[in-house]
Predict the structure.
Amino acid sequence: MRRTVRRLADQREIIYFDDSPDPPERTATDERDLPEQAGGSEIRRDPLTGEWVALAAHRQTRTYKPPADLCPLCPSTPGRPTEVPESSYDVVVFENRFPSFSQVNGLGRCEVVCFTSEHTTSFGELPASRVCTIVDAWADRTAALAELPGVEQVFPFENRGEEIGVTLAHPHGQIYGYPFVTPKTERMLTVAREHGRSPMGDVLAMERADGSRVLATSEHWTAFVPAAARWPVEVHLVPHRQVPDLPALTDAERDDFARVYLRVLHMLDGLYDRPLPYIAAWHQAPVRTGRDLSWLHLEVFSVLRTADKLKYLAGSESGMAVWINDVLPEDLATRLRALDRGLLLG
Ligand SMILES: [Zn+2]
């Protein structure tokens, strides 16, 4: 893998991660006349819950569902410059032009990760070698963002599908460097402190012994539907070794993750016989606190409870943060296991 750092016209960083044999030098310059980077976001703390809210009114002007020939994440072509000056790329990361959190006002950072230069494909269709490059890019960015002043937690994630609110169809994810530890992570750390360690080791041992919710296991990872799943479709991918974050994974663990995750994504797309809209969220340790109490894992979930019905976050979920799930996790696991093409994929 080769890594090249460049700057866009408005001084945002762009980083190429190349896995192709003999990739071209990444020397293309951004010829666009761009206005200065938008700052403008602000964080305020809710005095009743102690939780932070980001106010990012400038994001209302961001690109919204452009036609494929105006996609800002495709490589540039002569006469049509995009966010990526090169005419091709493998994986590329750049600072978001419309960030929810921004270094401009010292409040974290938001980056975009393009998984492939191909506009009409999806993460689940990528080869395992490309998934490894993406994991390397996530790890690289996690380490880099953790070094920035004011970043307290790094969150790589992918939103996929219109039902999730994705405004660009091109296969991509984002990385948020939050200027605080997120409420979800705070909650998990509180429970871990009560136990004196992360409960994930016990969860993993229990799920592996029981097996009824397990979807796939490998040398280094287990994928399962959690016993107390909140969403109609929810899968957790957990490494067998306790590590705080992606940079701590070995090469063997990264390779193994790529294979297990692709298996899971194939199962998910088979569930309703249509590309599943999903959110894939990496739970990583905060930068400065609770690192020995954290256990890296990926949570993948969908808002779709049948092929065409959405689960809405209604009164109980939105008002009180109490989830009511109509789908029994064991039943979901049985249905997903029946769709496993793992053996065919090797
Ligand atoms: Zn595109």
Summary: The pocket of zinc ion is lined by residues 71, 73-74, 119, 170 (CB under 6 Å). Residues 184-345 form a domain with the HIT family, subunit A fold (CATH 3.30.428.10). The chain has a mean pLDDT of 93.
